[in-house]
Amino acid sequence: MTSLTSSNSSPSRGVWSSASPYMAPPVAAAAAIVPAYYDMAAKSAMQKGLPPPSMTFKAAVKGGLETAPSVGALVGAQMVLQGRVEQGLAKTFPNLFAEDSKASLTLASSALAGGLSSPFVAVYNGKTMTPPWSVRESLSKFSLKQAGAITLQETCFVAGLAAADPVAKQMKQTLGDNKAVDYLAAASTGALGSLAGHPGNTALTRWQNAMAVDSLKTLSLGSLRKARGNAVFAVAYKLGKEALYSTAEGEN
User: What is the CA radius of gyration of the chain?
Assistant: First the structure.
């Protein structure tokens, strides 16, 4: 890493190099929600038993841009926290989380990150309603059972994003080392993480709207639409992070 006091670089470039591990995830997440926003709004309507809302391209982009700051802060904080918790767990419990138990370590750290962020996820999910809810409206309806549903949902979502690089590494052994494999892995883990956590997300949406969860079929409403949105989000998030990190690496 370039030193802040190096005569070969300006202070501002050195600051970005140091800050990029913390700033790249929220900035990338904020940008990634824009192309995925309509699918998220559609899944919330479908979870309530309604058809996807009619929305022009301009309206979908506008909704994504309005949601971007909260999504950037939420997902960025989750990913930074997940990484730090994962490192802390591996260091504190080396016998429990051995080198060959990467999956369990990722799940444990993702569950903690997801649980801690549950009020903020409730606010974000409220933004996918039609019309979008205010922060106050979402928080006024927040409950412990919503927190439980969010923890399930976010454990799978955060784990899916975190698993993209390890999965890509395994896929490259068969498919070859190229960028297409990286993005295929990101889309696949994003979609699978979405499907795994979808029952929690559906329960959250229905409970926020004072609706019952009365069958397994109900819990699957909007699952494929959300999986597609999460796949798009995961690929855009990876692209954004890579672009931002490459800028920081250019300082070295």
Answer: 19
- Walk me through the domains of the chain, giving residue ranges and CATH numbers: 11-249 (1.50.40.10)
Place of tokens 């992070």: 241
Q: Angle, nearest 10°, between helix axes 144-175 and 57-92?
A: 80
Q: What is the distance between the alpha carbons of residues 168 and 2, in angstroms, rounded to a whole number?
A: 29
More confident residue, 138 or 11: 138
CA distance 123 to 140: 10
Tens-place pLDDT, residues 197-239:
999 999 999 999 999 999 999 999 999 999 999 999 999 999 9
In whole angstroms, what is the distance from residue 191 CA to residue 225 CA?
Answer: 10
109-138: b (≥16 Cβ within 10 Å) or e: bbbbbbbebbebbbbbbbbbbbeebeeeeb
